[in-house]
Amino acid sequence: MTSTAIADYGMLADGSSAALVDRRGSVDWLCLPRFDSPALFARLLGEDAGHWSVTPTGGFDVRRRYVPGTLVLETTFTTAGGTACLRDALAVPEGQRGHDLGMRPPHELLREVEGLDGEVEFDVEFVPRPEYGLVRPLLRVDGRGARTFGGPNPCSLRSPVALRDGGGAARARVRVRAGERTGFALLWAPPEEVPPEPTAPEAVGERIADTVEAWRSWEADHDIYHGPHRDTVRLSARVLKGLTYRPTGAVVAAPTTSLPEAVGGERNWDYRYAWIRDASLTLEALYLGSCPDEAVDFVSFMTSAAGGGADAGSSLQIMYGVGGEHDLSERELGHLPGWRGSRPVRVGNDAWGQTQLDVYGELLNALYLYRDRLGELHPEVQRFAAGLADAAARRWEEPDAGMWEMRGPALHHVSSKVLCWVALDRAVRLAPQLGGYARTAVWGAARDRVHTAVLERGWSERRRAFTQSFDSEELDAAVLLMPLYGFLPPTDARVRSTVEAVARGLTEDGLVLRYRVADAGNADGLAGGEGTFALCSFWLVSALAMAGEPDRAQALFDRVAGCANDLGLLAEEIDPRTGELLGNFPQAFSHVGLINAAAAIDRARGVL
């Protein structure tokens, strides 16, 4: 089984997919041509599931960074004989600049080794294993090139030195001295096409430099955050850009599947899809950290993917494929042992069929936030928005799975009711733009009923807090969304008491849990525990800042952001005992939370 720490990985991205590279220079995860395509390299989830490594032959020390303003990775190895730098990039089309970044990528992974001092020898090992390691393809090695045959991921490799063929792998050894550079290129092409030639070794450095300029030009066009947390926000904005499927505007929750919420546990999910649940907060982060254009693209994707899903005879899905796909049926890959033995490994996500009533509020809030940029709403959009509000008014009294996608019995989740209130409140505000579809009085009355029900049945006198579900005593970090969405003011005594209850009763070493699994009585339908959630910790930061406690918020912000790896990347969860990153990686919602929390602090201090 693989034992590489999740924090040891860096992400490369090109607008359609992503690769994960570890500190040894091994690409252990790569799905082409899309985020949700079957992996060509999947050593992340099983030692024999494929990789491509460029690693010094002896002992070495490592330091890493992203080339400033980019997601191009530099790994510097220092050995007994010298120092060399490995640069890795997923290429973008030559000359692509600005907002076009990520359109029509060539699906090419570029790797360049540069000698900085003395001499360093590298072992190169190319082990393609399509379909998550299930396929052992025919690998034809011809001098300085190799090509795969068989499986859904045909690809071609070009090397600066002769390759050795052996055991379904291509290997080589390369040396670089100070001032020397040498490059490798791996190119994917559809199986029905004859693969074009990858970039020549002598041109790899130039292509990487062009990709660097493409990223920097995008950031220059999107550098709109100027608060004190600017550098941290800019990095997280690049991560969100890297997790965006440029053809549609979808933002995936993460580029990976089945990285566990607890080592050895079963809470292992496929996150390579776009969640409506994340929409409003993701939009705010995109607007703050990058550019309104990216946000509008995301609105367009969400509304088009969900179109027609709010009618009386159907249910709005909580998530969609990056191309707008609806059927994301889940299956297990029994041939993979999982990261550190965490089984099962899953592809697809059956949560797509769950009822989660919060999605109506997420979509309507997204439409409301961008009403000015969306211009006059087309009648079909007016009808769709009104349908969302009607569905929230009709269904808010139903139990659901909640935003944490519990797989146990349905409950009356307080957060779901709050988001139904958001749906109705935003619909009332949008009513002048909804033409003849507006039902302002009906929506307003339903909104008031939801508000009253939450105050009466969602509040626990014993806890002095809003709780996970109606008439319960369990805490849930999702109730921190109340002030963030304006359900109650952040200074309201009940909100302040809830914030303190969460900070006191739902934290481990200062970091916030979603809920306590034991207290929930296995209501989530799963065995085992989980780590603290970076997103929930950032929600607490935002709530504290909005309540007028920026210093306390800053201290918690620093604690959470300090758990990021050396490249600034955050996973979904943090082990409170060890500080180790857990869950799918890097996690979009963690970086969304970071951006929004940073903005909340900077606003509270009057510097944004």
Automatic annotation (TrEMBL):
Enzyme kind, highest EC tier: hydrolase
**UniProt cross-references to Pfam families, sorted A to Z:** Glyco_hydro_15, TREH_N
Q: What is its EC number?
A: 3.2.1.28
This protein's pathway: Glycan degradation; trehalose degradation; D-glucose from alpha,alpha-trehalose: step 1/1
Q: Boundaries of each GH15-like domain copy?
A: 228-598
Record keywords = Carbohydrate metabolism, Glycosidase, Hydrolase
Cofactor needs: phosphate
Q: Which residues form the signal peptide?
A: none
A Gene Ontology biological process annotation? trehalose catabolic process
SUPFAM superfamilies from the entry?
Six-hairpin glycosidases (SSF48208)
Domain (Trehalase-like N-terminal): give its ranges.
3-161
- Record GO terms (molecular function): alpha,alpha-trehalase activity
Q: What is the reaction catalyzed?
A: alpha,alpha-trehalose + H2O = alpha-D-glucose + beta-D-glucose
- Family named by the database record: Belongs to the glycosyl hydrolase 15 family.
Name by which UniProt lists this protein:
Trehalase
The lineage is: Bacteria, Bacillati, Actinomycetota, Actinomycetes, Kitasatosporales
